[in-house]
Write a structure and sequence with these properties.
Layout (H helix, E strand, L loop, with lengths): L2 H9 L6 E2 L16 E4 L12 H7 L4 E4 L15 E7 L7 E4 L8 E2 L12 E12 L4 E4 L8 E8 L2 H4 L5
Antiparallel strand pairs: 1-5, 2-3, 2-9, 3-8, 4-7, 4-9, 5-6, 7-8
Length: 168
């Protein structure tokens, strides 16, 4: 089966899934700038870990290449820091309101899942910086759960004092 047919077959709704009844007309509401690219060992959806726990279990090969001049904003970050990466899941479908995850017993609303299939496919990844070269904008990560070449939207620091939920 060629790659295009396989992609269409993978993207076909599963029994019990439903697409949004209507998608908004018109152009984008916002313009975002990609600040870099996430590199990973995952080239195909079927190989990509479903979450960060699985990515860490499967190990390395994760990095970020920041585009110029965004590398200038790394000042103050260091190896060992935990950061949130916000990615644009550019190869995800955007039109399912109900999804049937393989682990679930029936349909679930998109906003109850962490699936990449959503109206605005923005990924949120809590990663640890293994190495950081602010001169070249190269970051090595402990792991990542996205396809190779995924665009990076932003980097935000993790602060345990404000980001950890009460009682965690």
């Amino acid at each position: 089966m060629n790659e295009e047919l396989r992609d269409k077959a993978e993207r076909a709704p599963r029994p019990g899934e439903a697409r949004f009844s209507a998608m908004p007309e018109g152009g984008p509401d916002a313009v975002l700038t990609f600040i870099g690219e996430i590199r990973s060992p995952w080239r195909e959806r079927g190989d990509c870990p479903k979450n960060m726990r699985m990515a860490r279990e499967r190990g390395g090969g994760a990095s970020v290449s920041l585009f110029k001049p965004f590398d200038e904003a790394l000042h103050g970050l260091k190896a060992g820091d935990w950061v949130f990466l916000l990615s644009f899941l550019d190869r995800a479908d955007r039109d399912l309101a109900l999804q049937v995850p393989r682990h679930a017993d029936g349909p679930r609303g998109t906003f109850t899942l962490r699936s990449p299939v959503r109206p605005n496919p923005i990924g949120l990844h809590l990663v640890q910086l293994v190495t950081l070269d602010s001169d070249t904008g190269q970051l090595t990560l402990d792991a990542i759960d996205v396809l190779d070449g995924t665009p990076l939207l932003d980097i935000k620091p993790y602060f345990a004092s404000v980001d950890a939920p009460p009682g965690a």
